[in-house]
Amino acid sequence: MVIFPAIDIRGGNCVRLVNGDFNKETVFSNNPTEMALKWQGQGAHFLHVVDLDGARAGHSVNLEAVKSIIAAVDIPVELGGGIRTMENIEEVLNLGVERVVLGSAAIKNPEIVKKACEEYGDRIVVGIDAKDGIVAVEGWGETGNVDAITLAKQMGDAGAVNIIYTDIARDGTLAGLNVEATARLAKETGLYVVASGGVKSLDDIRALKAHEKDGVEGVIVGRSIYTGALDLAAAIELAEAD
User: Are the C-beta atoms of 170 and 197 separated by less than 8 Å?
Assistant: First the structure.
């Protein structure tokens, strides 16, 4: 199972939000590249980068910061946040991004998911962000009026094989991961799922790892590693253990 350290960029800073609320922001660093190197140094094999300004703007905003990260690290980077056109997808892949995360586009324009998957295969990941099982879009400011499992099945039909499932109610809260909902999504869709939202301890990693056989392939860790609540190296060791 893969541990993905999260690097959320807003205004050039590395930040964490609570429940996706831009008014509940904590700045952990003014140098996202330094944070990327820190997590790589602690054993990370893949980074999850989010362009928060892009999520609001509907197109990539912080690409200079992303370029800096990619140039500095030796591990792959996936990027999400406001990427909603084939042109933007091509742009970020050409920067050296390994995987592109499509979020709001999955509901607003599902045809683009199909086109992107046809052209780029498993380099396209669909991000499904939900509260009480209902999908949220536009930087979590709107409801998509569809339940997460239904949307995931639609994305699977469109060609997606990888899903990031975020429980908004837990994101940034250290309240514990929604393991049950994540595992259910993987089981009912047959897709590979990365969990996100609320990780607080090794117990979350241990509980999630029990569902690897169901298709849970990883977990994104954010506030827990920034505050020191979770030791990244220990989490990686546990996740990769046989």
Answer: yes
Strand-pair partners of 218: 2, 194
CA distance 160 to 45: 22
Q: How far apart are the C-alpha atoms of 58 and 41, rounded to whole Å?
A: 32
The catalytically annotated residue of 51, 53, 129, 204 is: 129
User: Token digits for 172?
Assistant: 């940034």
Active-site residue among 8, 51, 171, 204? Answer: 8
* 129: annotated active-site residue: yes
pLDDT band at residue 162 under the 50/70/90 scheme: very high
Residue (of 224, 220, 228) closest to 1 by Cα position? 220
* Entry pTM: 0.94
d(Cα 143, Cα 182) in Å, to the nearest integer?
A: 19
Residue with tokens 């849970």: 216
The DSSP line for 113-151 is: HHHHHHHHGGGEEEEEEEETTEEEETTTTEEEEEEHHHH
Tens digit of each residue's pLDDT (9 = 90 or more) over 90-103: 999 999 999 999 98
> Active-site residue 8, yes or no?
yes
Please, what's the b/e burial string for 2-15 (b: 16 or more CB within 10 A of its CB; e: otherwise)?
ebbbbbbbbeebbb
Residue 22: its pLDDT value, please? 80
**pLDDT at residue number 8:** 97
Mean pLDDT of 133-139: 73
For 119, phi and psi rounded to 5 degrees? -85, -35
